[in-house]
Each structure stands twice: as structure tokens, then as C-alpha cells.
Amino acid sequence: MGYKLICLDMDGTVLDDKKKISHRNKEAIKRAHDKGVKIAISTGRVFASARYYAEILGIKAPIIASNGAYIREKDKDEVIYESLLDKEVCKNICHIIEKYDFFNYFNTYNRIIANKPFPKQNIYRLMNEELPNNMKISLDVVSDIKEILEDDSNRIVKFISISDDYENLNKAREEIDALGGLEIVRSNINNFEVMNKGCSKGSAVERLSEFYGIKKDEVICIGDSENDLSMIKYAGMGIAMGNGEDYIKSNAKYVTDTNNNDGVAKAIEKFVL
């Protein structure tokens, strides 16, 4: 089978536990790209963050950001797909979430609007410490997110709650799910992420495949978490990371090595190179 598109999750997949890209991963991705295979970054992160990693890889990459709510090529201003959360839906989410002591934020393609200061270990805060000013992600802490939502220039594509209080996190997720019309997934055990219904990595990969005229059987998707399940199930070759959750592995056609042991490179070498 000649694969023409590889869609890669970032955290827990391309990135090791130190949030770095190994030399072997970088080389395998670059070799596949040079062979004519399209490489897409598919992440729950904002577009601006994913674009930074695409720059490190040195490839022209389409980017699936915010779990499929925003799709755009790295080097072009043209947006391939965007699904904005309705202003009233965002307010309803705020009403539900305000009784819980979580770290919450809404994001646009390049801005994150939070209800609390960003923790020192927050990935966006850590990235901003190293990025040049023209690539920094806008991190804003506000006392009343509902007021910010009134500004139509804030084009919200995703909401996320983060907490180690798993019991209440699940309760809040169920309450928000009851609003209807929403897609809710986890990218980690301590969070849930909210997009419009129909927004998922799987639907985004399908949209991207159609955009480039690539068949489902010509697509490889690699990931490790709940938000990767839809694209792993969609792909002609769905690949789970060795560090992935068991139900992700059980839905994959192949399980590669872990993110700390060049699992992405080994999968690309096996199926593409």
C-alpha cells in the first residue's frame, strides 16, 4: 500500500515525556516528507503551538489543531476548516463550570483565555519562555471570561477544564455533555476538552483527505489518547503508541513502540520507508 498522508498526534506520540522530538523521529518524518508523503500534525493544542513544532521538523505541514476544530496549512493564511463555539454555548459552559475549582480556558487559534494564572508547568507557559516574541502564544488571565466572550473578535474553537479532582471533573463533563451538540474528549486523565459536535481528529483527517484527494486507505494516523481514537479508527492504518491506553491499542491495526523510544519513527520506517 502506498501511503500518502501521515497524521501525527504530538503529546505522548511525536514528543517524548520531556516534550522534545528525538533525532530519529525527526529524520523519519523528514524522509517520508521528502518522499512525497504529506505529514499532518494533529493535536488538541492551539494552531500557534503546533506550527512551532512543524517549524522544528522543517516540513510544510497541514495542521489539525484544537482536536479538529481548526485546520490550516502551516505556511498559508487560508483556513481549510474552522468550527466556532456559539457564544451562548460558551456562556452555558461557564455557568456550569463556575461551581468547580478547576483551571479552565477557552482558546482561539492563537490565544488562550484562562480563569486562573497559568501554572509553572503549563506547556504553553514553558514554550513561551523559549519562543521569540513573534511566535509567543497569547496567554490571558481574566476575572470574568463571560465578558471576554462578548467580544466577537475572540473566535472560540475549544474549551478545556483541567483538574486532579477526577470525580468532580467527570461530573462537570457529564453536565456539559447534557447541553447537547458538543464533542467532548480527554487528551489526558486530568482534563476534558469541548468542541462543536462533529469536531474530532477523525473528522478532521477525513476533511483533510478530501481536501487533498487522498483515499482513506492511503492514510496513516498515530496517537495515544482518547482524542486520537477517532482518527485511529478512521485511518487505513491506525497505529497506537506503546505508551497509549489499552482501549486505544485495541482499536488500532498496529501498536508501535513508546514515545520515549522512537515509536513514531519505527512505525514510519516500517510502513512508509
Describe the protein.
The chain has 273 residues and is an alpha/beta fold. The strands form 2 sheets. An 8-stranded mixed sheet has the order 5-4-3-2-1-12-13-14, sandwiched between helices. The chain has a 6-stranded mixed sheet with strand order 8-7-6-9-11-10, covered by helices on one side. Helix 1 runs parallel beside helix 10. The protein has 10 helices and 14 strands. The model has no long low-confidence stretch (mean pLDDT 92). The protein folds into 2 domains: 150 residues, HAD superfamily/HAD-like (Rossmann fold, 3-Layer(aba) Sandwich), CATH 3.40.50.1000; 110 residues, Hypothetical Protein, Haloacid Dehalogenase-like Hydrolase, Chain: A, domain 2 (2-Layer Sandwich), CATH 3.30.1240.10. Helix 8 links the parallel strand 12 and strand 13. It is globular. The longest helix is centred in the first third of the chain and has 12 residues. Keywords: Hydrolase. InterPro entries: Cof, HAD-like_sf, HAD-SF_hydro_IIB, HAD_sf. This is Cof-type HAD-IIB family hydrolase.
* CATH architectural arrangement of the largest domain: 3-Layer(aba) Sandwich
- Tell me the number of strands: 14
Rounded to an integer in angstroms, the radius of gyration calculated over CA atoms is: 18 Å
Task: Give helix and strand order, one letter per element, not per position.
Answer: EHEHEEEHEEHEHEHEEHEHEHEH
**Rough shape?**
globular
Helix share of residues? 25-40%
Average pLDDT figure:
92
Uncertain stretches: none
How far apart are the termini?
A: 12 Å
CATH class of the largest domain: Alpha Beta
Q: What is the topology, as strand order, of the major beta sheet?
A: 5-4-3-2-1-12-13-14
GO molecular function: hydrolase activity
Keywords: Hydrolase
Protein name: Cof-type HAD-IIB family hydrolase
Organism: Clostridium brassicae
